[in-house]
Design goal:
Layout: E1 3-6, E2 11-14, H1 23-32, H2 44-53, H3 58-63, H4 67-73, H5 80-88, E3 92-95, H6 103-109, E4 116-121, E5 130-134, H7 141-156, E6 160-163, H8 169-179, E7 184-188, H9 199-206, E8 210-214, H10 227-241, E9 244-247, H11 256-267, E10 271-275, H12 281-288, E11 292-294, H13 312-322, H14 326-337
Parallel strand pairs: 5-6, 5-9, 6-7, 7-8, 9-10, 10-11
Antiparallel strand pairs: 1-2, 3-4, 4-8
Helix pairs in contact: 6-10, 7-8, 10-11
């Protein structure tokens, strides 16, 4: 096995053969990548608008000689230094045309999917089933304990964890997962650069148990979007990547957790579970809007009796359903897809 030095870990990492990148993928990097070279790349919305305009064909898009495209293509040589710098940092660029790109994002998000992602870590983690965790930054001991119990259940069932890396619930779920030998995916809303000094993350990357993504380049001096807007973009990726996402604590009608959860429910990107904590009005409203409640023990509550008297068979089905954990429900979904 070949080895290379990753400055992120400052240690040798096993390097598999680099994913082959065709010219169309290279074009996406030239058009959408941020390399601090003085050029303004295409935004996500601009890229997909042009891509669809030319029949979802990069060949046609490049051949169309759009003024903006022609200007960006001129920088193909000037960005070589930036690409080399990213490689020295251990950062890869994965585009929607690459095999290692998280396909769930493209399949579920459509034009909300980023054309490319900056990534560090083992691509193989993408093949693992993931449970997402989101929630408030302002949390108490009760929130921490409930989250850790659910993560422990996930790990026992063979799930990895996907979060956004923020303070609060995201960090609790991520740390619990990594400290107990699990695999995780993190979608950061910023450049990842400031995260690269974290010893636990470095160790997890070295052990090939952590895959980090960001739609913001580590070379970007400043995100072209506000941090809040970037975090909202990132929230979509968590829901799309996960088999199901657990909302531990949400404010009511405000905040990133609330916005992300209501958007996921609206678009049905994944199954959304929420802790049925009666002290959290945001959680209760999400349940009213269609999120599946989870009790203190992680199980779903028994369904209310129907207007008509259910048959014994129906009673048995409802009892079994109420005793299922959300991992069981996800497995049920797997079998129905086969």
């Amino acid at each position: 096995m070949a080895y290379g030095i990753c400055s992120f870990c400052e240690s040798p990492l096993p390097m598999k053969e680099r994913v082959k990148m065709d010219m169309n993928s290279e074009y996406i990097i030239i058009l959408c990548g941020e390399f601090a070279d003085g050029n303004t790349p295409l935004t996500r919305a601009e890229f997909w608008k042009l891509y669809h305009k030319y029949n979802d064909s990069m060949d046609e898009l490049i051949a169309a000689q759009e003024e903006k495209i022609e200007e960006l293509l001129k920088r193909s040589a000037s960005i070589a230094f930036g690409k080399e710098k990213l490689e020295q940092m251990g950062v890869r660029i994965s585009t929607v045309l690459d095999e290692d790109f998280p396909q769930a994002l493209l399949e579920k998000l459509g034009d909300f999917c980023p054309p490319l992602l900056y990534t560090v870590g083992s691509r193989q983690i993408n093949q693992q089933k993931m449970a997402g965790y989101v929630g408030s930054r302002d949390i108490g001991n009760e929130d921490i304990a409930w989250t850790e119990e659910r993560v422990d259940e996930n790990l026992k069932k063979g799930f990895g964890i996907v979060t956004g890396g923020a303070q609060g619930i995201d960090s609790v779920a991520l740390l619990r997962c990594l400290k107990h030998g699990g695999s995780a995916i993190v979608y950061f809303p910023d450049t990842m650069k400031q995260r690269m000094g974290d010893a636990l993350l470095r160790e997890a990357v070295f052990d090939q148990r952590l895959l980090m993504y960001s739609h913001v380049s580590p070379l970007a001096a400043k995100s072209r979007h506000s941090f809040v807007a970037s975090a909202m973009e990132r929230n979509k990726y968590i829901y799309a990547q996960s088999k199901a996402t657990v909302v531990v604590r949400s404010d009511l009608n405000k905040g990133g957790t609330w916005s992300g959860a209501t958007e996921a429910l609206k678009h049905r990107w994944t199954t959304v579970f929420v802790w049925d904590n009666k002290n959290y009005p945001g959680n209760q409203e999400l349940i009213r809007r269609g999120a599946i409640p989870l009790l203190d023990d992680g199980k779903m509550p028994e369904k209310k009796a129907a207007e008509t008297v259910p048959t014994e068979e129906k009673k048995t089905e409802e009892k079994e359903f109420s005793q299922m954990s959300f991992e069981d429900l996800m497995k049920q979904g797997d079998s129905s897809e086969e």
